[in-house]
């Protein structure tokens, strides 16, 4: 029984190993393949066809191209298949440049045979007069009313701003006048302060003397002393 179970387990392990090896071989095969490009999904006949938009653009460039001048315009449409360049692309480009150079040489030779037309001064003036005379007269709105409205509007704006500026200046002048009046009042009060202080001290001495006479009946010596003290206080206040 043990030998049979061992053989069964061995067969199961061999089958698992075979399956694992097949999976690994398949992964290696997929990794070795090159990356699939979007061009592979297209049919073979569509790969060699140029882009539709680029083809239309090349037609437009061909329609506006000037004979005898190489301006670098795209006159041939590229195909969908991407190429890495190389010898074939270089030869194709050289053939295209040689064909353009040959066409340019032919054009230059033609220009030498037929020189440019030169007009006289009178003929030039006549042609210019004819060209300017063929210009159509101007039609449509001129916008003069709008310009007049804008001019009136800005004139009113300038008037309003000028009045506002004058009002601000007048307010500033009134403010400065009031500030100057306050300063003059303070200066006058400072000049009058010693005299007012002396008058207050004299009045306080008189009140104190009246109170002392009423309460205690002071003598003439005490009155003299009080008068002397009050006079000294007034003198000190005046000197300050």
Question: What can you tell me about this protein's structure?
Answer:
The chain is mostly helical and 240 residues long. Helices cover 75% and strands 0% of the residues. It has helices at residues 2-32, 44-47, 52-64, 87-113, 121-133, 144-215, 220-239. It is elongated and about 145 Å long. 0% of the residues are buried. The model has no long low-confidence stretch (mean pLDDT 77).
What's the arrangement of secondary structure elements?
Layout: H1 2-32, H2 44-47, H3 52-64, H4 87-113, H5 121-133, H6 144-215, H7 220-239
Helix pairs in contact: 6-7
In short:
The protein has helices spanning 2-32, 44-47, 52-64, 87-113, 121-133, 144-215, 220-239. It has 240 residues and is mostly helical. The relative contact order is 0.03.
Helix content: over 70%
Query: Biggest β-sheet: count, sense, barrel?
Result: none
Number of strands: 0
From the N-terminal CA to the C-terminal CA, the straight-line distance is 136 Å
Low-confidence stretches: none
What's the shape?
elongated
Strand content is under 5%
Order of helices and strands: HHHHHHH
Number of helices: 7
**Helix/strand-derived class?**
mainly alpha
């Amino acid at each position: 029984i043990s030998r049979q179970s061992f053989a069964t387990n061995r067969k199961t392990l061999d089958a698992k190993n075979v399956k694992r090896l097949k999976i690994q071989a398949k992964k290696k095969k997929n990794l070795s393949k090159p990356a699939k490009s979007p061009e592979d999904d297209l049919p073979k006949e569509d790969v060699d066809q140029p882009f539709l938009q680029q083809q239309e653009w090349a037609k437009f460039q061909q329609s506006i191209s000037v004979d005898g001048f190489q301006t670098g315009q795209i006159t041939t449409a590229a195909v969908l298949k991407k190429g890495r360049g190389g010898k074939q692309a270089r030869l194709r480009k050289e053939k295209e440049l040689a064909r353009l150079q040959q066409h340019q040489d032919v054009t230059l030779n033609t220009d030498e045979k037929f020189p440019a037309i030169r007009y006289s001064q009178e003929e030039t003036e006549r042609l210019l007069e004819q060209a300017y005379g063929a210009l159509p007269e101007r039609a449509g709105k001129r916008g003069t009313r709008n310009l007049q409205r804008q001019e009136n509007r800005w004139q009113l704006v300038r008037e309003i701003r000028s009045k506002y500026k004058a009002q601000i200046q007048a307010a500033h002048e009134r403010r400065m006048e009031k500030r100057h009046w306050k300063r003059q009042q303070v200066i006058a009060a400072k000049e009058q302060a010693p005299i007012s202080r002396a008058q207050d001290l004299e009045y306080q001495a008189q009140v104190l003397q009246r109170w002392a006479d009423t309460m205690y009946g002071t003598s003439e010596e005490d009155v003299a002393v009080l008068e002397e003290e009050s006079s000294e206080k007034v003198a000190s206040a005046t000197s300050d």
